[in-house]
Design brief:
Length: 481
């Protein structure tokens, strides 16, 4: 999609506002701004009250994603304007700087954006400007309603309803060129935002795992749909296998649209795409839950679960965070998270179950840690998934479903390869020993360099006893209901 070359008046211009859609291809709002046939300013606002704040793994990703976006725009003759501050203040300045403009942007459904979007739209319209809001973040724009006119609280009916409504939209190509307005707007320097960690640089391992930005996102998508998706259904639960897409951080930042990912999966995989596209719908379902229940990250969807007798256990929480629980699969997952900003989904469920039910620590502590350390930390998906494990969410797993970390390890890492990768102190143990080293004779462990309580921790809880305690806590909660 090329920009026309005729000259335009700077008084006749559009402003595109990037948010959770850091891409120039498959961006319906951007395409509409371009097709308005007006000179175009391109803007990104870092409002820490609304989005990513320095100190989180997502801040590392945002820095590199914006760098890629800036370069893609510059390669086409344009410029990405960066502003940091309160969104309302930034737009107040823009109204002063620009005689008129039409705003184009894609909706973001996180609670913190809803009032802000209303305020921005109201301020612009009061000043005689136009705001154009698009909804290409979702596969099916707008809320799906049940036959009774309500909204879905159970995933499977939602999934079926979405498939009935599904009409994948043609995706715009990336523009071939941008034409710069004569009036320049002041822009921050990305490096001055301090999004990258320095002392210590806890993200030193991230670069080996990821290529943030639209360029890397498109490459990873093609690798997945052309080479990996055929084995997704059979291999997705095994963390050592390269069977999952690892597209979640790219989707989190909108470097790919859900529509384009869905279409690529169906084009290359045809009938084998469904197990993967179903997971895209879970992401959309989570977004809908957060939209309808904005307190989802803070309050139990099922209120009775906020009466759970959670334990104050800072030592247990710290051991869990650092991957030092004495349960090899748990520790492998938590160390993978710290090193790479990512954790395999099966392992996420197991470590979440361990924190909530083995340690009886409030699920909100786990959500907070994931929000700090995951490069794909997403308000909706994070909250919905933690509440799913806790049993307190919409269509959640029952609370009494308590993952046994040893059985999960034996089933989904049968050779111990994932554990050996992330818990190298256990690397010399056999596949029969590595899942529960405390059951191995002490002398056998010493011969392989393992001393429980020294080179590797003893289990911080007994799973069988912890399970009984968790079920008793549930009974108390029900009695109080």
């Amino acid at each position: 999609m090329a920009i026309k070359n005729e000259k335009h008046s700077d008084a006749n211009m559009s402003l595109f506002w990037f948010r959770s859609d850091l891409r120039i291809a498959s961006n319906e709002a951007l395409a509409a701004a371009i097709n308005s046939d007006k000179l175009l300013h391109l803007l990104y606002i870092l409002d820490e009250d609304l989005g990513v704040a320095p100190g989180k793994a997502t801040a590392w990703w945002l820095h590199h994603s914006l760098a890629d976006l800036s370069q893609r725009i510059a390669d086409r003759g344009g410029k990405l304007i960066l502003r940091r501050g309160k969104t309302a203040d930034v737009f107040a300045d823009l109204i002063k700087d620009l005689p008129s403009f039409d705003l184009y942007y894609n909706a973001d459904f996180a609670p913190q954006y809803r009032e802000m979007d209303k305020a921005v739209t109201h301020a612009l319209e009061a000043a005689g400007y136009t705001a154009n809001r698009f909804c290409d973040r979702l596969v099916v724009p707008g809320s799906l309603k049940t036959q009774a006119g309500g909204w879905y609280k159970v995933f499977t009916p939602y999934y079926k309803a979405l498939l009935n409504e599904l009409q994948l939209r043609p995706q715009p190509f990336a523009p071939e060129a941008f034409e710069l307005p004569q009036q320049e707007l002041a822009s921050d320097h990305l490096e001055d935002w301090g999004l990258l960690p320095t002392k210590p640089n806890w993200a030193s391992g991230f670069g080996d795992e990821w290529t943030p930005g639209e360029t890397g996102a498109q490459e990873r998508l093609m690798d997945f749909v052309q080479d990996t998706i055929a084995g997704y259904k059979s291999g997705r639960d095994f963390p050592i296998k390269e069977a999952v897409s690892r597209l979640s951080p790219h989707l989190r930042f909108g470097e790919l649209s859900l529509n384009s990912v869905w279409q690529a999966a169906e084009f290359y995989a045809e009938d084998k795409a469904a197990p993967f596209t179903r997971q895209l719908v879970w992401k959309e379902f989570s977004t809908e839950l957060l939209y309808q229940f904005p307190k989802l990250p803070r309050e139990a969807f099922k209120p009775e679960y906020d009466r759970m007798p959670w334990q104050k256990d800072p030592k247990g929480l710290k051991a869990w965070q650092k991957g030092m629980t004495g349960y090899p699969l748990i520790d492998a997952g938590m160390r993978e998270l710290w090193h790479s900003g990512y954790m395999h989904n099966r392992v996420r469920m197991v470590v979440a179950s361990f924190l909530i039910k083995d340690l009886l620590i409030d699920w909100r502590e786990g959500l907070k840690w994931f929000d700090e350390t995951l490069v794909d930390a997403d308000d909706a998906n994070n909250a919905a998934s933690w509440q799913w494990v806790a049993g307190s969410g919409a269509d959640a797993a029952p609370y009494f479903r308590i993952f046994n970390p040893v059985r999960q390890s034996e089933k989904f890492d049968p050779k111990g390869e994932y554990i050996r990768k992330w818990v190298p102190e256990l690397a010399d143990l056999t596949k029969d020993e590595i899942h529960a080293p405390w059951e191995v004779p002490e002398m056998d462990l010493r011969m392989k360099g393992v001393v429980l309580g020294d080179t590797y921790p003893k289990p911080i809880v007994d799973h069988a006893e912890a399970r009984r305690r968790a079920l008793k806590a549930l009974e108390v909660t029900k009695e109080e209901a």
